[in-house]
Every structure is written in structure tokens, then in C-alpha cells.
Amino acid sequence: MKKGTILWISVIAAIGVFLALPATREIFTAATNKHPYIMGFIKFAILATMGEFLAARLIFKRWVMIKGLLPKMVIWGVLGVLIVLMFSLYTSGVNGAVEKGLLFTGQGYLAKILIALYISIIMNLTFAPAFMASHRITDVYIDKIYSGEKSTLSKVISEIDWGGFLKFVVGKTIPLFWIPAHTITFLLPDEFKVIFAASLSIILGLILSFARHRK
Question: Is residue 66 helix, strand or coil?
Fold first, then answer.
């Protein structure tokens, strides 16, 4: 148990040091700007999975291996690519609406805050529920496959506790955490926005995995 804790903390600390040091942070930022999809894939595949490990540790009171680790990492990577795209789409969409006078912003720093808030609210109330539901379906499906149970996507969908999903993941984490967190994200300079978004992927893995196994 102690070895697992030390390993998890060591990996997170190593990532933190890598992002904190100016030289390596510049490499990370440059790579993200040049290859956003590749870096989005890698970032979420690693960090969101770290969040899953932590969730499992909190729930089962011990470190356990995640079933279907590699396919789940691939799924996280694909979802990371989608998030990179959605960040850009929603940012451009809100800014376009502001330019046309469709959204009130005011002036100065108030405008920056409201624009960041609009992006976060609209993205989290439209894309986020579908994104999280997709993850829930693939997560349960992979668990069943690696448990030796034959299943289909339609069967998995019918077995998921959608009431609990809507109550906790959508009803609580989105308004209480994700909207404020992403508002902060869109207020940050690009260099820090990338790093903050990376840290949020750990929390995303933690929340979704915890919601999946909390019963």
C-alpha cells in the first residue's frame, strides 16, 4: 500500500516539477501549441488515468490495478483530443457571439470574466454531459469485457444508473466544480491555461471514476 502511494505521489511530483521548471515548461507549451491533438491525447491518457487510480484507492482503501488499463488510457486520450477541439470551438463561438452583440460583456476586466464564464457555462451544459456519459458507457463496457462477461453496448447502456449519473456528475460536479474551474481556465494566459487544464484532467479522472464505483 505504501509503495503504491509513494509511486503515485512520485509520478505526480515528477510531472509537477516538469511543468514548474521554466525550461521544461517551455518545451511542454511549445509542443502543445505545435501538436495540440497529440499532446491532448498524451496528457489525458496519463493524467486522467492517474485520477482513476486515486479514485480506486479512495473507494477500495487500497491500491488496485485498473481493469482494461490500456484501452481505458486510449479512451481517455481520444476524449482529450475532443476536449482540445471543444475548447477552441466554444471559445471562438462565444467570442463571435460577443462581437455580434448577442451576449452582454461590459468593458475591461468585467468583459474578460463574463466571456470566460459564458464559455464555461455553455460548454459544460452542452458538451460536458455527453462527454461524461460517453466515458461512463465505455468505462463500464471495458470493465465487463475484462471481467470475462459478454456484453453489448445496448445492454451496458440499459444497466447504467443514469439517475445517479444525472444527480451527481451532472447535477453536482458541473455547477459546483466544472463551471467555476473552467471559468478560471479561460481567464488564464495561454501558457498557464495549458498547465491548469492538465491538472484538471487528474480531477476529471478522479470524479468520473469515483462516480462510477462509489456504490
Answer: coil
Q: Which amino acid is at 134?
A: S
CB 213 within 8 A of CB 55: yes
Question: Grid coordinates representing 58?
Answer: 479512495
pLDDT digits (tens, 9 = 90+) for 33-67: 899 999 999 999 999 999 999 988 888 888 989 98
pLDDT in tens, 151-173: 888 999 999 999 999 999 999 99
Instruction: Quickly tell me which residue has 502511494 as its cell.
Output: 5
CB-side exposure of 104: number of CA atoms within 13 Å? 1
Q: How far apart are alpha carbons 208 and 177 in whole angstroms?
A: 13
Spatial separation of the C-alpha atoms in residues 48 and 52, rounded to whole Å = 6
Alpha-carbon span 142 to 98, nearest angstrom: 42
Would you state the torsion angle of the CA atoms of residues 171, 83, 146, 10, taken in this order, to the nearest 10 degrees? Answer: -100
